[in-house]
Amino acid sequence: MVRIVSLTAAALAAAVLSVTALPAFGQSFGRTYPITMQEPAPGVDDTGRDVELPPEYRRMPVFYRSDYPPGTIIVNTADRFLYLVQDNQTALRYGVGVGRDGFQWGGVHKISRKAEWPDWTPPPEMIERQPYLPRFMAGGPGNPMGAAALYIGSTVYRIHGTNAPQTIGQAVSSGCFRLVNEDIQDLYSRVPVGTRVIVQHQ
Questions:
Q1: Going along the chain, which residue ranges are E strands?
Q2: CA atoms of 107 and 116, how far apart (whole Å)
Q3: Alpha helix (H) ranges present in 47-142?
Q4: Catalytic residues, which ones?
Q5: Closest to 66 in 3D by CA, of 55, 74, 76
Q6: Taking the CB of the first residue and of the last residue of the chain, which one, N or C, has fewer CB atoms within 10 A?
Q7: What is the dihedral of CA 161, 101, 175, 197, to 10 degrees?
């Protein structure tokens, strides 16, 4: 069982004002999300826009009551947050972009591999949906995989960085979970291969 305690009223109000001022980013805490969003094409480097990230989506320690052991990763797709459990009452919280409608999934897996500045090879099913995508892209600032990737079990899904930080808080991916590059580098440094990953929707 997991129980999350909300931010203080003052902090929540500040987060609401910040998000309202930046409508290009996702909105949480019960507010609506934009239906669609235009992402930069592969090769376009929008990483400088991470300075616009609203405060609520920035990495921060939070009160988080959990029965899971320290080091567990929990992705809550409804809230658009990833939690790294620290102990039974705290976690590090990261803002994430999640899968769009029809591409959401859940379950329990483990990190099977890690890579810094990974190459990107879109899987065949993605190429079928988006035939204009490159068949291969070397790692780098314009790569949609960003600065690092954590590979989830034997699935095609990753927890990775992004060349489009304005999509954090949005449901626009094909099922992967994206963080701004600074945050994926931080998470990468904290978790080893074998880390448990729990994906839930509430």
A1: 2-4, 60-66, 73-76, 81-85, 90-95, 98-99, 107-116, 148-152, 158-160, 171-173, 177-178, 196-200
A2: 25
A3: 124-129
A4: 160, 176
A5: 74
A6: N
A7: 100
Please say whether the beta carbons of 153 and 18 come within 8 A: no
Any alpha helices (H) in 55-168, and if so which ranges? 124-129
Beta strand 158-160 pairing with 177-178: parallel
Q: Are 137 and 127 in contact (CB under 8 A)?
A: no
Instruction: State the pLDDT at residue 40.
Output: 59
How are beta strands 60-66 and 90-95 bridged, if at all?
antiparallel
In the prediction, which pLDDT does 141 show?
85
Q: Which residue has the tokens 């929990």?
A: 74
Structure tokens at 93: 């919280």
Model pLDDT for residues 85-110, shown as the tens digit of each residue: 999 899 999 999 998 887 788 899 99
